Structures are given as C-alpha cells and as structure tokens.
Amino acid sequence: MSTTPNPSVPPDPNLPADDPTRKLSVIDPEDPSLRHVAVVGDTYTILLSGAETAGRYCLIDMRVPKCGGPGLHRHDFEEMFHLLDGEIEFTFRGEKTLLKAGMTVNIPANAPHFFTNREGGNARMLCMCTPAGQEEFFVAIGTAVESRTTPAPAMTKEQQEAFIKKAGALAPSFRTEILPP
Predict the structure, then answer these.
(1) pLDDT, tens digit, for every residue of 25-49?
(2) What is the mean pLDDT of residues 81-85?
(3) Are 149 and 97 in contact (CB under 8 A)?
(4) Strand pairing of 113-116 and 123-130?
(5) ∠ CA(80), CA(178), CA(171), 5° rounding?
(6) Distance CA 18, CA 11 (A)
(7) CA dist., res. 154 & res. 173, Å (int)
C-alpha cells in the first residue's frame, strides 16, 4: 500500500499535518510496564492511556469474573466495549442485553448503565473511552495487582463500603456519577 499522496487530489486544508512526535503503539498484554488494577472484583489492564493518545481515548482490557462488574453509573463521555471471551449482561437505561464473545456495544455519553458477568467463567472485554480519563479514575480507586490475570483480592463488607464511598467522592472529578442501585 502506497503512502504517497495522490497528486490529483488537493490536500485538505482542514486536516492537521502529521504529528511526528506521536509514535505507533504496539501493546503486548504481558508487558511488565502495563498498569493492572483491581476494581470492584474485576481486574483492569490499562493498554493505552490518555497520555499515549494525546487525550483522545483510553483502551482497557477488563477481566470480569462471575457476578463481577460495576454498579449503576454514567459518564459524560462515550464508552465502547468489545467482548473477547464469555458473556456479559449490559443494563442500559434499565433494558438488559446479553453480549456474547465477538459482539460490540457503544454506550452514549450520560446514559445510566452497568454490566455483570452472568456466566460461570471469566469474561474479558476491551473498553475504549473517548476522550481519555476513565483509566485514571480506575487507578485512583483501584488496587494495583501483579498482572492482567491476577484475580482481584476479596473485599470485606467494610472494605466494599469504603471503596464505594471513595469511588463516589472521586467520580465527579472524572466526569462520572455513581448512581443508587
């Protein structure tokens, strides 16, 4: 495939020039420099952060165990999920939809939603948020774990209550609202 511009097509004056300071990103999920975070029983791996995409989006590999998933919430940004393995039940504005491996769902900004793994095994999905920022929320509220396959540590009832309180307090700083169940 040629990268040479077609001389018969004039350049678009509204299209910004190439930014040579931005590099191609090739992510190995086993890269030891990746951040892995336990959040509400799930393990999230930050594949691409906003710092790497000029703030345009972030990409997160989410491992969601049986019954895992966040509670009802909404964001002032778009989210797209692509299910890699397993089955996830998404609840969007109160309507439930079952996603199976290979399916993709887009959550419009500000729509109340949550998801739950209803299957027996672990489910994995990619989450892209645009613009970026949600990955930093997960880092702020979560607990660092060793790898993307590390199960999230079990939480006592007191730890769960403290986590929910912390998430609720920090959420507005990350354009997120934690909603009552």
Answers:
(1) 899 888 989 999 998 788 999 999 9
(2) 95
(3) no
(4) unpaired
(5) 85
(6) 12
(7) 27
